[in-house]
Amino acid sequence: MAQDDDKTVDQLNDEADIAADYLEGLLDIADYDGDIEMGVRNGRPMVQIVADDDTDIKHLIGRNGEVVDALQQLTRLAVQQKTGERSRLIVDVDGFLKRKRQRLHDIALDAVDEVKETGEPVDLKPMNSFERKVVHDVVREEGLKSRSHGEEPHRYVTIYLRSNADASDVDDE
């Protein structure tokens, strides 16, 4: 992660430009109309695809965001090929990530409430690293402890009261 901290805003903007060009090419090939918005947020390059046609956008999101995730991975590879460096680029389609982050926030708060009520740890369903990171952040903000367990793709988060968590437990995300 320190790698991105060392990148200048110009380098991050260059990554966003490369990503936007790559995604415009993919949209042309797929014959999808869409506008590309780009910038830098929280020290990471960000590219968002926005379209007028809800049908096309739904195809670019996919079931549970599978297509968005694939687009992000492919675009990161395209950026890496041009720059020679790994990118932490974020690709979003029509605000999908914002909506997903809000749903995860709500799930985490429900689990936090359950832990506070029962005093017992709560295991959440398996999640990808982005999802686990969102949950860990919410749990930390609420003053509880969380830890990821298991192997990909079945890795999941357990939420604990601070008093029930081993002092050596550290969020791994």
TrEMBL record:
- Which stretches make up the R3H domain? 98-163
PROSITE patterns for the chain: R3H (PS51061)
Provide a Gene Ontology MF annotation, just one. Answer: RNA binding
InterPro entries for the chain: KH_dom-like_a/b (IPR015946), KhpB (IPR039247), R3H_dom (IPR001374), R3H_dom_sf (IPR036867), R3H_KhpB (IPR034079)
Note the Pfam families from the entry.
R3H
Q: Which SMART domains match?
A: R3H
Among PANTHER family, the record links this protein to: PROTEIN JAG, RNA-BINDING PROTEIN KHPB
Q: What is this protein called?
A: R3H domain-containing protein
Which species is the source of this protein? Bifidobacterium platyrrhinorum
